[in-house]
Automatic annotation (TrEMBL):
Organism: Enterobacter agglomerans (Erwinia herbicola)
Protein's UniProt keywords contain Nucleotide-binding: no
Protein name according to UniProt: Amidohydrolase family
Record-annotated Amidohydrolase domain positions: 5-72
Listed Pfam families: Amidohydro_3
Lineage top rank: taxon: Bacteria
Molecular-function GO terms, alphabetical: hydrolase activity, acting on carbon-nitrogen (but not peptide) bonds
Sorted UniProt keywords: Hydrolase
Length: 94
C-alpha cells in the first residue's frame, strides 16, 4: 500500500469518533469529550499515537465507560469491573 494514501492517526481517530456520530446524526450527543455530551470512552492497552503501526490491531480496551458507567474493566482496572451478567434461563448453565 502506498504510504501517502494512508490517513494519519489523528484523522483516523477523528473519523472513527466524530465521523461515526455524524453518520448516525448524533453529533450533538456524542463523538467528542465535551460537557453535555455522553460520557463514553475507552482506556486502551497501548498508546494509539505512539505504537508501531503493526501493533495498532492488537490494542484492546482495558476500561470502557458508557454514559458515565463502567461497563468493562480488565487488567489493573479489574477491581472496578461490573458484575457478570447472569445466565438466563437458569437451566441453560448446565
Amino acid at each position: 500500500m502506498d504510504v501517502n494514501a494512508r490517513l494519519d492517526r489523528e484523522t483516523a481517530l477523528m473519523l472513527w469518533t466524530q465521523g461515526s456520530a455524524w453518520f448516525s446524526s448524533e453529533q450533538n450527543k456524542k463523538g467528542r469529550i465535551q460537557v453535555g455530551l455522553l460520557a463514553d470512552l475507552a482506556v486502551l492497552s497501548k498508546d494509539f499515537f505512539s505504537v508501531p503501526e503493526e501493533e495498532i490491531k492488537g490494542i484492546e480496551s482495558v476500561l470502557t465507560v458508557v454514559d458515565g458507567n463502567i461497563v468493562y474493566a480488565a487488567g489493573s482496572f479489574s477491581a472496578d469491573a461490573p458484575p457478570a451478567i447472569p445466565v438466563l434461563p437458569e437451566w441453560s448453565r448446565w
